Structure formats: structure tokens, C-alpha cells
Amino acid sequence: MSAEAASPNGASPEIHPVDRPGRRRGRARIDLRRLGRAALFGPASRGGLPDAIGHVAEAHRAHFPDADLAVLRRAYVLAETSHRGQMRKSGEPYITHPLAVTLILAELGAETTTLTASLLHDTVEDTEVTLDQVREGFGDEVCYLVDGVTKLEKVDYGAAAEPETFRKMLVATGDDVRVMSIKLADRLHNMRTLGVMRPEKQERIARVTRDVLIPLAERLGVQALKTELEDLVFAILRPEEYEITRALIAAQDATADPLVTIAEDVRRVLREAGIAAEVLIRPRHFVSVHRVRMKRGELCPADFGRLLVLVGEDADCYGVLGELHTCFTPVISEFKDFIASPKFNLYQSLHTAVVSTGGDVAEVLIRTHLMHKVAEAGVVALGNPYVPLDGPPATPAHAAADAADGERADPTRPGWLSRLLAWQESAPDPDTFWSTLRADLAQDREITVFRADGGTLGLPAGASCVDAAYAQHGEKAHSCIGARVNGRLATLSTVLSDGDTVQLLLAEDTASGPSPDWLGHVRTPGARIAITGWLDAHPEGTAVPAAAPRPSASVTGGAMRRAAAGAVVGVPNTTVRLAGCCTPVPPDAVTGFTVRGGAVTVHREGCPSVTRMLSLGRPPVEVNWGAAGDCRVTLVAEAFGRPQLFADLTEAIATAGVAVVSATVEPPSEQRVRHTYTLQLPDAAGLPALMRTMRDVPGVFDVSRAQHPATA
């Protein structure tokens, strides 16, 4: 069964923060804990569990006064009868769990379809009810949601059941975000009632919640669930720090709160300015208090909460901001405008901090009532995203096809979710998917960069040009040789900033591939998986499996195979390629080595790769140069930095009749700069003259052939 047990003696063993009724004002935060208890037990006048659906109905009608409750009652009857006889470890009827989960979603403002699926979310997993029965009784949408949150059987998947279940849920979430809303509410109730589980199981569930569910709640904007999940995980995984924070909050609750006085001053200022606003005191949750303590060391009385100002219109938010900055001393470094630039999880608000007349610093959040609803409930507050302007609701799986303009009808599928769904298809196994998912979700900020063609790319903060290349071009990015960032040539390792314009430069030779060095500066899982896959498929420098015997390395006669730039090996019918690490050209002394697939890679004899392969016992293949022809070579120019140096070098190269394939300029170091050019020469015999011409450019003190170290 999916729900964890409650206390066997009937008392709730819930791990939760101390209640702070004296610090709550208005409806600043939805009290999910109280509502969860109401769903479990209900008032005595209701006459027991059969009327428990009444709690859900009342909460739902508060958001949707005209909602049709008949479908909820039918779903409750099916859930109650199918779970009848099943008990939680506490001895409570199992139906208390889907009721509590549904009430959490009802209080957040979920629409009727989500609540119906929530009541039924464990029926297919834990009872004899089938998906076909759910579809027949409640329609395709409810069936899709129930299927999305149904776990895969360990009997069929073994240790991979948990990661594959999350993969299944995420794919379903890509078509309907309500799947993850139900999962988050389900996990919240299970975390509340985790107290009777063995400590090791509590820790395992808490870690998965911390690494996967909490980041998903943050990205979907469901702050009301995210903050309580954070506190519950905090209590389990860091009990000592939790108790310290609990004691600090309890001690502060027993003293005068300076935010009360500041709130009154703010109300007076706004009233005199003629701005209708609701000013509330919003206590920080446990993890937030702990973070502030870690950041500042010692907490001030005003650090235990923030002021929340709610207004009617967007323009009023800026009016409130102006009045506060006029009548109080603002802390400018604390100002953030998430209305003009919303967060990627739909969050909108103005953040500021002001100094009161008493010297206390109060953080202030300013938003409209609608912004506050979305800030608390995130995608849940958006209702059903699949209802078109005209006609009946679309089936989630076909919502995109139903959109008149060919775009998704779902406005809630953000860029991070699209990227996640893209890379998960390439994850080779459940372990890779699971570890990559956790790493991906740990990146909690996004940037937007502009493409040269006018489009945009959403990337995690810290992404490089390599990430941008794979985000824009997919596997074609294997041949990326450089980039321009804001019009300037940049290395592929360059970290992009929000608002940058990036142009990716791809080689015409599609057979080229990524360097292992790229793995050192990628942040996106899609890029990492693509690069790793290419390197695994082209394992130059590794042993050839016994199943693929290596051709003889000695010259035995027969036909000679010609390669690019006239390299000839003594192995018939063999593909030959020049190594990118040392770019050999005639008349270099060269040798070759057979790699996986039977191809021969040619290196200069002084290349570190040669030493490495010989140390591994790899027999060399004899290589000779045939007739001279065009060739590709990489040159490194060392120079003293000066204006126009790049222009003068490229002009010298062009004058020699040589084509520039790519060029990279490294940042100056101690007034010295390094230029790296990959060049296409019409004749290898002209290489020495070209190098002399480049050395003659003023400021250049050395030009040499590129010699990259062998990769491990």
C-alpha cells in the first residue's frame, strides 16, 4: 500500500513544527495540518467516516461554489468500498488516507477532476479495481491521472521499481501536471504519518522526498506543500538542528513581536496613501528560520517572520513599494522584482526590506491576491489547463493536437520539464536516470539566452556554450567547434549569463565528435548523456573486446587503403582517420592504432596518445604518407595581447590561401594571449611557410602545432 502508517494507539505521531497561533494573521498560510486531522477524524456530529466526504465538499465549494459534487460522492463510494477491510498500521481504515490527500488538494483549490482522481489514486494499485473500470465510471481524464500516480510492481521491476515509477509519473506529468499535484499531496500525508516506521525507512523516504519531491514542488510553485515537506524532512534527517530551531521559535513566541508594531505602521502609511491593502504577518517555517540563522549567525526578533501585503491590482504593488520606500528607510540590496520577471515556477511578488523607526529590519512581500494564491498553490491554482475556450475538455494526452494554432494547450509545462522529458528518453538504465534526475532537480535557478536566429533557450544557471549547443542542435552538437557570445568568439566552456546571445558554430565534418573535456563544463543532463554516449561508442584508446578481433598490424601485402590527407596503412579495407589530438600532416612521422570497429587512427609519433597506447600493449600499425593533398591542422599562436591582433592573424592566414575552420581566443593572462586555429591547407607542404608568416605578425612570439594531452 502506498500510504504509511499512523500511530497504533490512535494518537497522531506526526512530526510537525510547533503550532504558532499567536503569530498567524488572516489567511496568510493554509493550515494543511489541521485540515488533515479533520479529514482523518472529523467532528463527532458527522457520525463517522461515511460523512467524511463532507469536509472535502465544503473545502471544494469554497473555491468552486457551483461545483457538481455528485462525481465526488461516487468516487468516494468506490474508494471506500474497494478499500473496505484494508487498514493502516495504526488500525485506522485505509480510506482515511485518500480522504486526507483529497482534502489537501481541495484546500489548495484543485478542480473537481483532480479531486476525483485523488480519491481513487490508490484503488488500482491496492485493490481489485481496474483502470478500465475507472475509465468507464469517471472518464478518460480521471483514468489518466490515476494511472499516472499508480506505482509499478516490485515483482516486475525489482530494485528499479522506484526510479521507473518516478520516470512514469514524470512522463505523465508532461501531459498533465495534475499527476504530480496528486503525488505531492500523497507524499505530504505520508510524511505527516511517518512516525511509526522504522528509523531507517523514515530516513530513506525522507531523502527521496528531499532530493526529488521537494524540488518538484518548488518547480511547480506549490509552496504550501513544499514548505511543510521541508520541515518534516528537516525533523527526520537533522533532528538536533531541528530541535534547536524549534526551541528558538518557541522562545520567540513568548516575547513581543516587533513585526506587530511595524505592520500597524505599514497599515497606517497605506491607509493615508489611499491604497486598499491587507497587511499580514507571515511566520517563517522551520527550515527558513534555520537558513536565516546559518546566514546571519544571530537572529533578531524580526527575523522570525515577514510582512505580507496583499492588494487588488498589479499597479497597486508598485504603489505600495513607493510608499514603503518613501516613509521607511529601504534596504536596497534586498529589493527584487519577481512581477516584471517572474520565477520559472510561476511565482510573482515584490520583495523588499525596510528599517522601522525602532531600528528593526522587516522583510516585506508585496503581491496581489491572485499572485498569493498562485504562490501558495502553484499549478494547482490554475485549475484544469486542458479546457479549451469552446467545447468539452480535451484529453490530456491529446491536448497539444487539439490546440488550434498547433501549440500546446497546456500553459503549465515549463522549459525545465520539457528538458527533463527529453533527456530521460536517452537515460540508458534506471540507475543513470535516478542519479541524473536528482542532480537535475538540485539546479534551482534558470536563465534565458537568445539564439542567433531570434529564438530563446531556457537553461539552468551555470550552463555553458556546450549546454546551449545540445539544447539547440541535439546530437548535431557533437560537431560544435566554437561559439560567439554577444558577438564575440568564446570558448565552449564559457558560462552563459541570463540575457546572453549565443551563436553556435558547427563543423561541416559531421564525423567529428565531442571532447571528453566537455564533460567538465556541462550542467544539463541531456548534454552529459549525449556526450557520454558518443564517447562510449567511440572509445579511442581502450581495448577492443575479444568478440571483435583486431586486424593484424603488420604489412601483409594486398590492397593499400588511402585516407584523408594521403595517409596509407597496411591493413586492407580499413577506415583511416587522422587523430584530432595532434592533427598529423605530411611529412610528419606518424603511426597508427586500431580502435573499436576496426578503424585505424593516425597519430604523430610524439603524441602523448602514442605513449599511452603502447603502455597498454596496443600494437602499432604502419602508416605512410601517399601523394600530398589538402589537410587539416591545428596551430597555436602565443602572443602579447594588443588591439587588432586577431584581425592581423586571420588576415595573414587568409593571405596565405588557407581556410579557417575554427578559431578560439583564450582570456589574456599576464598580458599574454593564446590563439588556437584549426586550418584547412590546400597542400601540407605549405605548412612551414604559413607558420613563419604567422610568426611575423607583430606581437606573436611563437607558433606551434597543437599537442593535446592524452585523455584518461
Keywords:
26 helices, alpha+beta, globular, five-stranded mixed β-sheet, 712 residues, six-stranded mixed β-sheet, single chain, disordered N terminus
Description:
- The protein has 712 residues and is of the alpha+beta class.
- It has 26 helices and 21 strands.
- The strands form five sheets. Strands 1, 2, 3, 4, 5 and 6 form a six-stranded mixed β-sheet that branches.
Q: Outline of this structure?
A:
The chain is α+β, with helices and mostly antiparallel strands and 712 residues long.
Topology summary:
Layout: H1 32-40, H2 53-63, H3 70-83, H4 96-108, H5 112-119, H6 123-126, H7 131-138, H8 140-149, H9 154-157, H10 161-175, H11 178-192, H12 199-219, H13 223-237, H14 239-253, H15 258-272, E1 278-283, H16 286-296, E2 305-311, H17 314-327, E3 329-330, E4 336-337, E5 350-355, E6 361-368, H18 369-377, H19 399-402, H20 415-424, H21 430-441, E7 446-451, E8 456-460, H22 465-473, E9 480-485, E10 488-490, E11 501-506, H23 525-537, E12 561-562, E13 567-569, E14 576-578, E15 590-594, E16 600-604, H24 608-615, E17 623-625, E18 631-640, H25 645-655, E19 659-665, E20 672-681, H26 687-695, E21 700-705
Parallel strand pairs: 2-6, 7-11, 14-16
Antiparallel strand pairs: 1-2, 3-5, 4-5, 5-6, 7-8, 9-10, 9-11, 12-13, 13-17, 15-16, 18-20, 18-21, 19-20
Helix pairs in contact: 1-4, 2-4, 3-5, 4-5, 4-11, 5-8, 7-8, 8-10, 8-11, 10-20, 11-12, 11-13, 12-13, 13-14, 14-16, 20-23
